[in-house]
Amino acid sequence: MFTKKQQGVETIVGQETFFKGELNSKGTVRIDGGFEGIINADWVIIGEGGNVKGDISARGVVIGGKVEGNINATETIEIKHKAQVSGEVCTTKLSISEGAIFDGRSCMQKQSKNEA
């Protein structure tokens, strides 16, 4: 889930927190509460209790909770076994665990020469 360049989570929306708006981060964002709006970050992690309504753009996204919206990841999207995703996902690598719910479309992008 993490590469050596990542030092940890810089931004956390906790379980009892609801955030509405646009969140931009050059680091890793973790959502364990509610979020409505747009997320732009290096990495995004949606915890099992996380609920996102809106679009996500990142290098990588790991989903354990619920997302209603479009997800665009330049490297990878991982949908864990308890996750629910509704919307379009675009990425170079997509992983959907058994038990996950995915209702939408997937768009597979070509890897750039730097990533290969």
What share of residues are in beta strands?
over 45%
Gyration radius, in Å: 13 Å
**First-residue to last-residue Cα separation:** 17 Å
Structural class: mainly beta
Task: Point out poorly predicted stretches.
Answer: 1-6
Order of helices and strands: EEEEEEEEEEE
Quote the average pLDDT: 90
Sheet bearing the most strands, described?
11 strands, parallel
The proportion of residues forming helix, as a percent range, comes to under 10%
Shape: globular
Number of strands: 11
Helical stretch count?
Answer: 0
Summarize the structure.
This protein has about 120 residues and is mainly β. The chain has strands at about 10-15, 20-25, 30, 35-40, 45, 50-65, 65-70, 70-80, 85-90, 95, 100-110. Residues about 1-5 have low confidence and may be disordered.
Structure description:
This protein has 116 residues and is an all-beta fold. The protein has no helices and eleven strands. The protein has strands spanning 9-13, 18-24, 28-31, 34-40, 43-46, 51-63, 66-68, 71-79, 84-91, 93-96, 101-108. Strands 1, 2, 3, 4, 5, 6, 7, 8, 9, 10 and 11 form an eleven-stranded parallel beta sheet that branches. The two termini are 17 Å apart. The relative contact order is 0.14. Mean pLDDT is 90; it is low at 1-6.
